[in-house]
Amino acid sequence: MAARTAELTEHVAEVRGLARELGGRQVLAGVDLAIRRGEFVALLGRSGSGKSTLLRAMAGLDNDVEGKIEISGTAAIAFQEPRLIPWKRVLANIGLGLRGDVPLERARAALAEVGLDERADDWPLTLSGGEAQRVSLARALVREPALLLLDEPFSALDALTRISVHNLVLDLWVRHRPGVLLVTHDVDEALLLADRVLVLDDGRIVHETVVDLDRPRDRLDLTAPRASILDRLGVISEEPA
Amino acid sequence: MRPVRHADGRPPIKRLLSPLALIAAWQLASVIGLLPEQLLAAPSAVAATGWDLVVSGTLPEALAVSLQRVVLGFTAGAVAGIGLALVAGLSKIGEHAVDPPIQMLRAVPLFGLIPLFILWFGIEETPKVVLLAIGVALPLYINTFAGIRGVDAKLGEVAAVLKLRRAELIRHIVLPGALPQLLVGLRQSLGIGWLALIVAEQINASAGLGHMINDAREFLRTDVIVVGLLVYCVLGLLTDSLVRLLERRALTWRRGLLS
After folding, report:
1. Which residue positions does the secretion signal occupy (chain B) (predicted)?
2. Helix, strand or coil for residue A46?
3. How far is CA B24 from each of CA A122, A125, B17, B30, rounded to the nearest angstrom?
């Protein structure tokens, strides 16, 4: 079953009892999840915990899941690798499949928002990793999604680029206010960005932490939730503070 | 394989020396009688004959006939090869319908079909054009089909997420993605196409380059034969560089190893 568009009032996405079997293994075993309008949710999990499977199902890319997925309005996704179409110039990548009025102008505005208006006519293969990921974000956001799905989009970036793309994502989120589901395996990243951090383990959501702190956040304020999440993830001995 | 080139795109002088020496030796062997004219005419004689053939209109006429065969055969073969590859590449049903017979046809030696073609189509233009078309169609089919199937599935997911319609998916993702492989097929096609033309023209041709060469054999005119071969060479080189030009223009998005 693919993600269905529905009229939700409070939430932009509701997932109930989602299950997925893959090669005899229960990758998702009854996941319940709701994302409010404008809420930034991070989903943590170890490799193979099923977090990407959940995200792909919500993006409508998996037709073999059981359970219920309802999305209010459109969902857009930014993948781990930017997945730009190499034979389309940057601007055309953003505008691809865009319907409605003046698609190219909207694409240009989105490109300006991620600070790359000068690269509009360049080929994707000439972009750096960070630039390509920015274009990928612009391509997702230009569709004005109610739900923005981010599949570890920062994991391939170097540390410095990652910080600037983090800030960009927060900026864009504040401006457009989509509901965000960020899949990551980086606890610090989740705590720095999200309103709510979920931990997925063995196909179920086993932990939830609400991070009620203003942004930008100081890593020092995040020590306590960090320890409890790492505990849930099965990381045993952390260095004493 | 590409020859070594200078930055300005011209082969270095060093690489010209040995071919020039060979031609000089050939000329010398002809002049002192070591190489009889009935076996191979001297380079100077070839050049003079070439000029005569152009001026008398024999060569342009023959060339026009041969080129017409090439254009017809190549166009038919390209349309068939690419068309069938689209049918087979874009759907499983199409693949099951189209691919097995083509693979069977591929196993048949192309030039072994000539006797049948003569029986079916006579000895006029048709069998020559059909032979050329089949020779051109097969590599184009195989490469275009592989190109379509080789398009990254991840880009297919992007298309799904961007809600592209099927026609848009084909136009924006599948076809451009298959283009590099299609162009490889095009170069192979041209290679086989010229070969098919040369073979086809040797049989019962009453006009064209092959006829000119065959005629010359009857009169032991090795100079005319060499001129004919040189024309084939030039045509082959021309079409090859045309495809290379096409590749450069169509694949500018690729950040090549050497660009």
Report:
1. none
2. coil
3. 52, 50, 11, 10
User: Which residues, in sequence order, are CB contacts of B129 under 8 Å at separation 6+?
Assistant: B69, B72, B73, B76
CB A103 within 8 A of CB A120: no
With vertex at residue A139, the alpha carbon angle to CA B146 and CA A114, rounded to the nearest 5 degrees, is: 135
User: Token pair for residue A54?
Assistant: 């959940």
> Class for domain B64-210, per CATH?
mainly alpha
Q: How far is B248 from chain A (nearest CA, A)?
A: 13
Distance in angstroms (rounded) separating the CA atoms of residues B236 and B240: 6
Residue ranges in A4-124 assigned as alpha helix (H): 51-58, 90-95, 103-113
Please name the member of B172, B252, B254 whose beta carbon is closest to the beta carbon of A88. Answer: B172
pLDDT in tens, A218-239: 888 888 888 888 888 887 655 5
Nearest to A53 by CA among A5, A13, A14, A21: A21
CB contact under 8 A, A124 and B254: no
A232 in B contact zone (CB under 8 Å): no
Respond yes or no on whether ipTM tops 0.90. no
| Residue A100 CB-half CA count within 13 A | 9
Strands A204-210, A196-201: pairing kind: antiparallel
Flag whether residue B171 sits within 8 Å of chain A, measured between CB atoms: no
Topology classification of domain A4-232: Rossmann fold (3.40.50)
Structure-block tokens of residue A230: 């790492």
Question: Which residues of chain B lie closer than 8 angstroms to A81, CB-CB?
Answer: 154
Contacts of B255 (CB under 8 A, 6+ apart): A123, A125, A126
What is the average pLDDT value for chain B, to the nearest integer? Answer: 91
Provide the token pair at B167: 């026609």
CB contact under 8 A, A97 and B162: yes
Average pLDDT score over residue span B219-227: 94
Domain locations in chain B? 64-210
CB-based contact A31:A15 (threshold 8 Å): yes
Quick one: pLDDT band at residue A241, thresholds 50, 70, 90? very low
Dig out the tokens for B57 from the structure. Answer: 């209109």
Closest CA of chain B from A83, distance in Å:
7
- Judged by CB atoms closer than 8 Å, whether chains meet at B177 and A97 is answered as no
